[in-house]
What does this fold into?
Amino acid sequence: MNEMCIIDRFEGDYAVIEFGRITFNFPRTLLPKDLKEGDVIKFDVRIDSEETLKRSQKIKRLADELFRE
It folds into this structure.
């Protein structure tokens, strides 16, 4: 995959990002502060398995308490 994420423009609290033929909004607060139009950015998205497990266990405990007979 050779598609790049390019900052097209800013609209309020969002950066408008081009990814090939797709354009999407992304919260500015999650991006570097010195970002400017035309910058190429990279995303490193990973699953946090430990936090996912913690949240799943918490939700199960809450559901068990809620539906206790």
